[in-house]
Amino acid sequence: MFKKELEELFNGMPQFVQDKLKPVIDNILERAGEYDEFKNEDPEYYEEDRELIMKDVHKVKYLNDQWRIMNSRENN
User: Which of 32, 35, 36, 68 has its C-alpha lying 20 to 30 A from 26's C-alpha?
Assistant: First the structure.
């Protein structure tokens, strides 16, 4: 479920951003898949892992926002 949410988020980003950040996005999605699979085995550990994943997601979102800002300035 977590992985699916992140896939939707990343798929909504421009292709340029997806291409440039592909290794990072792939890593985040792999970690999210592991979270979905194992979160019930050790909830405390995987809750911390989820927080770390979200920190990386916020970095990707930040880069996406910066790209949009730069792109909008170029088009004006």
Answer: 68
Write the secondary structure of the chain as one string of H (helix), E (strand) and C (coil): CHHHHHHHHHHCCCHHHHHHCHHHHHHHHHHHHHHHHHCCCCHHHHHHHHHHHHHHHHHHHHHHHHHHHHHHHHHC
pLDDT tens by residue, 3-12: 999 999 999 9
pLDDT at 75: 72
Per-residue pLDDT of 19-46, as tens digits, reads 999 999 999 999 999 999 999 998 888 8
CB 56 within 8 A of CB 24: yes
CA dihedral sign of residues 25, 31, 35, 38: positive
